[in-house]
């Protein structure tokens, strides 16, 4: 088999192919992020890098058995401005369609975020097939709902493996069963107000008493009281919140937004009363990526690349239906 991966990122497709026991001859990748390419080449040095997808007409390539890709989702995501195909990144989807029509592979797979019905219909009309929605929580410790368009037949939801957030952390205690979704903004930083109002992330504590204490900090009507007496020095005023932190069933999708290491905010862990972010290894585990697969770039770039990647075990589940 010859494989073409568009928007390849850190080549999660190659890991998924291996897990599905699918052998391939050549793997061609189109990617422009130098950090993602570095990670790919360290793990799969035989990957043939093609560069920018906008130059695809200059490629002189053989026929492909499988074309895969996760076109940029910023224009479709409910977390963004929802510019849809007017977003210069999301309209790259049409490059995927052009390449698909030109090479006519036996199989294809496109992944993207949940989006408005009218945008789903545009993509479905172009690809001639309806998507299947799969939540990564079935195979990982992360809530991550994604749409998959593929002509690989007989795709069903994977069985629930029962993986919980507590199973993948390196130390600490979790406050919920599943992690929030990790995305490409996890490394950018944030503040307490964003944490409670918009960017809810799971908290992990050093002991059960700390976990109980966090609920006591939230008063009636959603008012957060002064936490300075609890060694969280950055919080001094009351903030209005829409929820009470507690034992949710699932966490949000893994992102690359990295919050302050000393504030009560973000996807994180509490050790001795001090908040910490999920480690890169823990984020890799949320995506079912092998430990330290991304350990060739800075941590901020690791978070970004992981958040941009696929949940491997979902993709391998789909690939196992290739005959």
CATH class of the largest domain reads: Alpha Beta
Number of extended strands: 13
CATH fold-level assignment of the largest domain: Rossmann fold
- Output the strand order for the largest sheet: 3-2-1-4-5-7-6
Largest sheet: 7 strands, mixed
CATH superfamily of the largest domain: Vaccinia Virus protein VP39
Beta-strand level of the residues, as a percent range? 15-25%
Distance between the termini: 11 Å
The whole-angstrom Rg is 21 Å
Nearest-integer average pLDDT: 77
Alpha-beta classification: alpha/beta
CATH architecture field of the largest domain? 3-Layer(aba) Sandwich
- State the low-pLDDT regions, or none: 75-80, 195-200, 213-249, 255-268
Task: Provide the domain count.
Answer: 2
Order of helices and strands: EHEHEEHEHEEHEHEHEEEEHHH
Shape: globular
Number of helices: 10
């Amino acid at each position: 088999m010859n494989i073409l991966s568009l928007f390849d990122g850190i080549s999660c497709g190659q890991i998924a192919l291996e897990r599905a026991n699918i052998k391939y001859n050549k793997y061609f990748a189109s990617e422009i992020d130098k950090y993602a390419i570095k990670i790919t080449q360290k793990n799969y040095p035989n990957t043939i890098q093609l560069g920018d997808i906008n130059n695809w007409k200059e490629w002189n390539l053989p026929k492909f058995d499988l074309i895969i890709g996760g076109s940029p989702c910023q224009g479709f995501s409910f977390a963004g401005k929802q510019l849809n195909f007017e977003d210069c990144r999301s309209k790259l989807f049409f490059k995927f369609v052009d390449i698909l029509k030109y090479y006519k592979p036996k199989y294809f797979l496109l992944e993207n975020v949940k989006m408005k019905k009218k945008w789903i219909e545009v993509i479905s009309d172009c690809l001639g097939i309806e998507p299947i929605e799969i939540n990564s929580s079935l195979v990982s410790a992360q809530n991550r709902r994604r749409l998959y368009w593929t002509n690989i037949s007989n795709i069903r939801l994977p069985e629930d493996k029962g993986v919980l957030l507590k199973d993948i952390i390196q130390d600490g205690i979790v406050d919920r069963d599943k992690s929030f979704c990790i995305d490409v903004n996890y490394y950018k930083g944030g503040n307490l107000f964003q944490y409670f109002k918009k960017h809810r992330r799971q908290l992990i504590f050093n002991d059960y008493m700390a976990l109980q204490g966090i609920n006591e900090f939230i008063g009636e009507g959603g008012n957060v009281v002064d936490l300075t007496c609890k060694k969280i020095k950055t919080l001094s005023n009351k903030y209005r919140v829409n929820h009470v932190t507690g034992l949710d069933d699932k966490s949000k999708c893994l992102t690359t937004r990295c919050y302050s290491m000393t504030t009560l905010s973000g996807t994180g862990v509490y050790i001795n009363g001090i908040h910490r972010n999920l480690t890169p290894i823990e984020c890799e585990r949320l995506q079912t990526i092998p430990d330290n697969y991304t350990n060739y770039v800075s941590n901020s770039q690791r978070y970004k690349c992981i958040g941009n990647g696929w949940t491997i075990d979902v993709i391998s589940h789909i690939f196992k239906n290739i005959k």
